[in-house]
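Forwarding these from the shared drive since the link keeps breaking.
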Amino acid sequence: MKTYRIRKPKIVIIGGGTGLPVILKSLRDQSADITAIVTVADDGGSSGKLRESINIAPPGDLRNVLVALSDMPQIYEDIFQYRFKQEDQFLADHTIGNLIIAALSEMRNSTYEAIQLLSKIMHVDGHIYPASENSLTLHAKYKDGTEESGESKIALERKQIDYVYVTNTYNAEKPIASRKVVTAIEEADMIVLGPGSLYTSILPNLVIEEIAESIKKTKAEVVYICNIMTQKGETEYFSDADHIRVLNHHLKTPFINTVLVNTEKVPQGYMNAEKYDEYLVQVAHDFNGLREQGCRVISADFLELKNGGVFHDGQKVVEELFRLVFGTSY
């Protein structure tokens, strides 16, 4: 049920992957002024094929965010999210939504404009902006001095990552933020990072210089929703404090005000290791390490077990976000 408030807090949520839509769906029901800033560095699957074929920003993460913030009937969502079967040759692995975004991007000569048009068509409650209006390529520099390019390839190396950065995929110009992104951050009451893959969903947005600088200057509460599980090739052996250290390292200053940490245990043997093969073990807790970096820690049961996977409970997370943004119980 939708909650209505006289004052709608301005909440900017930054990320990508499967974690972002979980929080956005619950935020949509809480009468917030929502802005989603979405990564455009995905180069795998349907998104990767489309951005190679027709020179557009990858549509997959944007598609999922559109669905999360839309109030369209379930049957329309099912159609938009339908993925063609592997044996369908040319259309194999493509979703209808990705193809629609690609078509509109070509018609309008802009993925940004395509997403704004679809937001109106799909009755999106909020604003959705790609982090950049151009497709970006993610690069990782490993601690052994080697380097890899491409979001889908970085974790495969199973090496410790020192830092990541992005470049424009189709030209040598410096990556810049999409229109209205910096303004949304400047006007926000709260900025939420995650949940999502640290190096491949969250940081590709933050290493765009304009976004990094605006977040460092903001007076808004900056909240990081720490992942529940470590990820193969990205955050192996990481504690929650290690996640914050990496974020601070990339922006060269402590900038996270509050961290949401799940303390509920995942039942042994629960996870479907074949389906969710990128996840390893639960993130270890280092509350002293978090506090040393100036973070307020909110630890609670944020766990949702579903279909053999481990997720954040969107409703519980959003309840904490609203307590923070209003400063009191609401």
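-- next protein --
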Amino acid sequence: MPNMLEGKVAIVTGAGNGIGREIAIMMAGQGAKVIINDVGASVSGEGQDATPAQQTKAIIAQNGGTSEISADSVAGWASAQKIVQAAMDHFGRIDIVVNNAGILRDQIFHRMTVEEWDAVIAVHLNGSFYVSRAAATHFRQQQSGAYVHMSSTSGLIGNFGQANYSAAKLGIVGLSKSIALDMSRFNVRSNCIAPFAWSRMTGTIPAETPEQKRRVERIMQMTPDKNAPLAVFLASDAAKDVTGQIFSPRMNELFVYSQIRPIKSVHRSEGWTPEAIAEYALPSLAQGFSKLERSGDVFSWDPI
């Protein structure tokens, strides 16, 4: 099915590097006109540099695609509206939003500062809401649209030193589900990808012990382009019946995730006291407890 996005207009945030760049390039290659949104900041969110976005635009042009650049930040409501308006100004419509922009301010929880928390929430969670909300008006009017949000196994499963990032990424899952529920009446879909890739963001993973070095070696095999096909599919009409889901591409593997549902219950006709919970409920409910694990513990086998 060539040119799965022919005639569509896509916004890809954080498209100057890594996963965002590969998604933008593949979407343009599949026929979409693309707004490359990137402020050109460092991994921690400091500074501005137009070069990354310009490089993405040059690659798309070399491949015969069409794109324009937006250098506005996702982290403010007014600037997020400008990103969506750029699509309207350049291409006259908007069909796809890929919320990929992100930063890292990793810190162990008991040392994390309010500034480190706020900065990550502002870009990942607030930014995903702002850009999505700005596009929603157009999606509603035209009775169509697709959102692809970047979550993370750090939020879905867990990781050390990333309370801000994990909370934002799990929050994005809730945001995506709410969008899917609220906007289904307008033929608008919303899905999440929890990507696996070696990029600037994962380049901060420690590699000091032999175990850590082996983990990093596995991750380095997972290049950012492995995530682009899934994003293109989810944005296309071929995924018209897919919404409210969470996926991962891991090298040549694809995963769909379960979502939180009750798995075990106990009932006591006379009600519960704290003592009764300890004596009767806990032994039964504990059989359904989830382990305290990191992403690396769950995805412990080599990618294939």
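The mean pLDDT is 93. The two ends are 25 Å apart (CA to CA).

- D.
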